[in-house]
Design goal:
The structure holds 2 protein chains of 2 kinds. Chain A is an alpha+beta fold. Chain A folds into 3 domains: 225 residues, Multidrug efflux transporter AcrB transmembrane fold (Up-down Bundle), CATH 1.20.1640; 83 residues, 2-Layer Sandwich (Hypothetical Protein, Haloacid Dehalogenase-like Hydrolase, Chain: A, domain 2); 140 residues, Gyrase A, domain 2 (2-Layer Sandwich), CATH 3.30.1360.200. Chain A has 15 helices and 18 strands. In chain A, the strands form 6 sheets. Chain A has a 4-stranded antiparallel β-sheet. In chain A, strand 5 and strand 6 form a beta hairpin. In chain A, helix 1 packs across helix 12, helix 5 crosses helix 6 and helix 12 crosses helix 15. The two termini of chain A are 18 Å apart. By secondary structure, chain B is α/β, with parallel strands linked by helices. Among the domains of chain B are: 195 residues, Multidrug efflux transporter AcrB transmembrane fold; 90 residues, Ribonucleotide Reductase Protein R1, domain 1, CATH 1.10.40.60. In chain B, the strands form 4 sheets. Chain B has a 4-stranded antiparallel β-sheet. Chain B is built from 17 helices and 10 strands. In chain B, helix 12 packs parallel to helix 15. In chain B, 59% of the residues lie in helices and 8% in strands. Classes of the chains: A alpha+beta, B alpha/beta. Strand 17 of chain A pairs antiparallel with strand 9 of chain B.
Chain lengths: 555, 465
């Protein structure tokens, strides 16, 4: 054995030193944090650094994980209904006779006509309106109808865009809510339209859940003059002659007196114009502010320039008429216009601070393009996570002590090599986790257990091989040499096979299984270094120590 | 030198049919359990007891102040409209040397409204309601345990940090909100809320017994203490964790778990076949791994143990262990094939098993000890993981010897027989052709094909060394 023990020692020492620096260094500090010398050696600071460098999963740290599905078909429904309105508009404007425009299901729009004479005109005109790249039309004679269908590829695109848009909006809402370290990502296959949100430290997810899926659609609509407050919906309908015209709408008014966006007492009904003066997309800002006098909070909002212009023009012409502030198809208040207002307004009705802030936030982030349903919710209380860690660590330490005791008992001094190699392996594994920003979860701990098992196995393989060679009568030096080189083949085979399978797990697995795969791969790579390189160096050092090659080996 | 075996020389493969038979018995028993439970008409047993991860539903850990009366808990849940027979209540076992935890695992069936379009898979189902219906029902049931005088008070044991802060802001016992700015009030009450919740979670393990504990905490002003007294109470139970999974997410996770296992096994099959230059070794190793998974799953079906994501991680660990064991033996066979070309593959396999026996026993024994530690000290969360490995290590060690090697031999023997007539005349010059290749660090062994051709002529077990 002619190893350069000194050089090998330097390599090992530097790898361990670098690992320790990676594990305990103050690397994951907030921007603008001034590192002091104490950050590098004070035990309490080092402990703090450790907890920042090695991220724990929600199952260990406590927090909430949500999987939600964007009901992307809603977006298609909205588009189809938008086109229904467009179709009616166009047909009226061009004086084309029709019986009805129906939406039998999202993505399908049917125009019923008296006869087939105008079918090609209808088809051409409406396709230009809808966009012929997305819609296709077909005509039938009995009964005379023109049917427009949304193309499959376009429908997929709309669904995908709705999901992406929902994610952007949800990100904004979580961000504004102020959840530290929250992360969101697309989840599952594309066609599932699912999002995954992880919020460490959130122990009571109800409020943030409400906020995420909150549907706050603010519209400012004109109350049709003369503004009459009807007691019931029927009265309002009767005043219109029994049927509500297509451009009118009957909306209930609730002057909220505390309590969320839910239903309160209905105060009456107004007839309003269906097309809003300004809608949610015209909002520039909205936030909860304390009421100027009296108690409670209100939501103040500002409009973008284009919306402000329209609003200004309308208010100028409608002095003394009523404006309906409509939230989620309910009138929240109907103030009368005193003078021209351009770009600001408010939603009143004694909100609590929390309600006002949440509503402002929901409005600010814009309306979701589709409804959201929660498919999965996992909340781990911090005390349970702490229990899991404590028990996991206790179990690992007990297991480790048993292993160490056996190795020392069975392999004597050589057992020390194995133990040192095992500890080095754990250090490198932790450094790897810190370096790649991997998250340690319970399945990750399973990966650590497998790694420790294989690390012990590598040493057992080597030691048993050395014993075999000694038994066959070889001298110590060559027994170690042969033992290592023969065991090396096996060690590499077992490690590479496991890494191959871990790679498949990573690419095909979901979250927790991926965590398992990452820890496993890092642990195995570390083990190749510690069990083979480090252990061998220790053997070389032991038998050549003091200038004389030893003739017996404690193994 | 302490040794378990000096030079072991057991004829492992002589009784291979006996052991393969035994494995079949285990697998068939598992299969019988699966079929029986599927068709026995009992709605409360399934082929596999799928956890909420895969079946959907709700799983919650609830901590009680005093040892809970499970009958009362069940009755309270039934009042929320959940079918009594489908509620599973399981007290959490206490750890050695710790105070009783008084915790109960509550498992509810899926309560979500889900529509599956005809002709589409379960994963494409559309959910109509949120997954947390079960959780809400559990919370509603827990509220009924509150003493009557607590009706109008807020429960300090179930409230979260954020809500507690808001509640304090509303009460404003220190008067900072009215007098000063909103920001200072926020900061002040956030601090107090954090102090209280941290005390509950870190020092009281999630449940405060008595309000006076909180009032005497450092950093709680007398005014706050007074406000706590009149507006809060400490309820008898708290939710420590809750998992709610919809059926379609469950179905998706299940499909993926199966896919991942199959794909990983295929990957290993190809790698081993490439590394050993023989399909026989690959097939032997994979058959052994499938055997392990099947037998373990059979156990789960018979015992009706719950299968969840953690169990899947354990199954993957078990696949890793079993594969590791098998490769160690196969490597030894390959090594011998280089020096003992004239002997039958079966003799070599048997010798390889013997020579690696100490290592097999030590490694398996040590990992078994580690798993035992996990089982005894790892707590509830790691329990299913530990049980899987507990069985898996025994099965995995056994299968490397009695399944992997025999199947490798059978495959090679079968191939040799098929090849023998054609290659009998050219058998002699072949070794030279098969030398060289991809081996790492050692000279290439003779290809298996040739050795197993010799294996066709049976020999008595060699007696040497």
């Amino acid at each position: 054995m002619n190893l350069n023990v000194r050089r090998r020692n330097i390599v090992i020492a530097s790898v361990v030193a670098i690992s320790l620096i990676i594990i305990f260094g103050p690397w994951k500090k907030d921007e603008g944090y001034k590192r002091t010398a104490g950050d590098f050696f004070r035990p309490s600071r080092l402990k703090q650094n450790l907890s920042e460098n090695i991220k724990l999963g929600l199952d260990l740290k406590g927090g909430t994980q949500l999987v939600m599905q964007v009901q992307a078909d809603d977006a298609i429904k909205a588009i189809t209904e938008g086109n229904q309105a467009k179709a009616i508009d166009t047909l009226k404007k061009d004086n084309i006779a029709y019986k009805d425009v129906r939406v039998p299901s999202p993505g399908i729009l049917v125009v019923e006509t008296e006869d087939t004479s105008k079918h090609s005109v209808i088809s051409d005109k409406l396709l230009t309106d809808f966009g012929s790249q997305d819609w296709a039309s077909s005509e039938s004679t009995n009964p005379p109808t023109v049917t427009f269908t949304l193309k499959g590829s376009s429908a997929d695109r709309i669904r995908k865009e709705a999901t992406e848009q929902a994610k952007t909006i949800i990100d904004q809402r979580i961000d504004a809510f102020g959840v530290a370290e929250a992360a969101s990502q697309f989840h599952g296959r594309d066609e599932d339209h699912q999002l995954l949100i992880q919020m460490p430290g959130v122990d009571d997810p109800d409020r943030v859940k409400e906020l995420i899926k909150g549907e706050a659609r603010l519209e400012l609509k004109a109350v049709v003059p003369p503004a009459t407050l009807f007691r019931t919906e029927e009265e309002a309908r009767a005043s219109l002659g029994g049927t509500v015209p297509e451009d009118r709408q009957i909306l209930a008014i609730h002057e909220k007196r505390g309590g969320g966006t839910g239903t309160g007492a209905i105060d009456g009904f107004y007839i309003v114009e269906k097309t809003p003066i300004v809608g949610g997309s015209d909002l520039r800002d909205a936030r909860g502010v304390p009421a100027q006098q009296g108690i409670g909070w209100r939501v103040a909002f500002n409009l973008k320039p284009a919306g402000a212009e329209r609003f200004g023009a309308w208010t100028e012409k409608n002095i003394n008429n009523l404006l309906a502030i409509v939230l989620n198809e309910q009138i929240r208040s109907a103030p009368s216009i005193r003078n021209k207002i351009t770009d600001s307004g408010e939603i009143t009705g004694s909100f609590t601070q929390k309600e006002a802030e949440d509503l402002g936030l929901t409005l600010r982030s814009g309306a979701l393009p589709a409804k959201i349903v929660y498919l999965e919710e996992r909340t781990v209380g911090p005390s349970l996570g702490a229990d899991s860690i404590r028990q996991g660590i206790t179990a690992s330490i007990v297991g480790l002590i048993l292993v160490v005791a056996f190795m020392l008992f069975y392999y004597r001094l050589s057992g020390v090599n194995a133990v040192v190699a095992l500890l080095l392996n754990l250090i490198l594994l932790m450094a790897g986790l810190a370096m790649f920003g991997a998250t340690l979860t319970l399945p990750g701990i399973a990966g650590v257990v497998l790694t420790i098992g294989m690390a012990v196995d590598s040493n057992v393989l080597i030691f048993e091989r050395i014993r075999e060679e000694l038994r066959a009568g070889k001298i110590v030096l060559s027994a170690i040499d042969t033992g290592f080189s023969k065991a090396l083949v096996t060690i590499i085979d077992t490690h590479v096979t496991t890494i191959v399978s871990a790679a498949f797990l990573y690419f095909f697995g979901t979250g927790p299984i991926r965590g398992f795969a990452v820890t496993l791969v890092i642990g195995l790579l570390a083990n190749l270094f510690t069990a083979v390189y480090c252990s061998r160096t220790m053997f070389a050092w032991e038998i050549t120590r003091g200038g004389r090659t030893k003739e017996s080996l404690s193994i | 030198m302490i040794e378990i075996f000096r030079t072991p020389n057991y004829d492992f493969l002589k009784k291979k049919w006996l052991f393969i038979g035994l494995s079949w018995v285990l697998i068939v028993a598992g299969l019988a359990s699966v079929l029986y439970r599927k068709f026995d008409g009992n709605p409360y047993t399934q082929p596999f007891n799928m956890g909420v991860d895969f079946a959907g539903g709700t799983l919650a850990t609830v901590k009680f102040k005093d040892p809970p009366d499970l009958g009362k808990v069940r009755a309270a849940l039934e009042k929320q409209g959940i079918e009594g027979g489908k509620i599973i209540l399981q007290p959490v076992t206490d750890q050695i040397g710790q105070t009783p935890k008084n915790e109960v695992l509550i498992r509810l069936p899926n309560e979500m409204a889900v529509t599956v379009k005809p002709g589409e898979s379960a994963t494409a189902a559309k959910a109509e309601t949120d997954a947390d219906v079960g959780k809400r029902k559990i919370l509603a049931a827990l509220v009924t345990f509150n003493p009557p005088d607590a009706q109008l008070k807020t429960d300090l044991n179930t409230i979260g940090k954020d809500n507690l802060k808001n509640e304090l802001l509303r009460l404003d016992p220190l008067g900072v909100g009215a007098g000063g700015s909103v920001q200072t009030a926020e900061a002040r009450y956030t601090e107090i809320a954090n102090r209280i919740i941290d005390y509950r979670e870190k020092e009281r393990s999630g449940l405060i017994r008595d309000l006076s504990e909180v009032k005497n905490l450092s950093g709680i002003d007398p005014q706050v203490a007074a406000a706590l007294d009149s507006n809060f109470h400490t309820g008898p139970a708290a939710l420590k964790s809750a998992e709610a999974v919809s059926p379609q997410v469950g179905a998706d996770l299940r499909n993926r778990a199966v896919l991942v296992n199959v794909v990983a096994c295929l990957g290993m099959l190809i790698f081993i076949a490439f590394r050993f230059k023989s399909w026989g070794f690959g097939v032997g190793a994979i058959v052994a791994v499938f055997h392990d998974v099947l037998v373990t799953l059979g156990f789960f079906s018979i015992m009706q143990w719950e299968i969840n994501l953690t169990v899947i991680a354990a199954l993957l660990t078990l696949v890793g262990y079993s594969m590791n064991d098998t490769i160690v033996i196969f490597d030894r066979i390959r090594e011998m094939m280089r020096t003992r070309r004239r002997e039958s593959l079966e003799t070599l396999a048997n010798d390889a098993i013997n020579q690696t026996l100490s290592r097999t026993i030590i490694t398996s024994g040590l990992t078994f000890l580690t798993v035992l530690a996990l089982l005894l000290f790892g707590g509830e969360v790691l329990r299913s993981f530990s049980w899987t490995l507990f069985i898996g290590i025994i099965i995995g060690t056994y299968s490397s010897i009695y399944i992997a090697a025999p199947f490798m031999l059978m495959w090679e023997g079968f191939r040799a027989k098929r090849k023998a007539p054609a290659s009998a005349q050219v058998a002699a010059p072949k070794p030279a052709v098969n030398l060289g290749g991809v081996q790492l660090g050692n000279p290439a062994p003779t290809s298996v094909g040739v050795t197993s051709t010799i294996a066709g002529t049976k020999r008595k077990k060699s007696k040497k060394r």
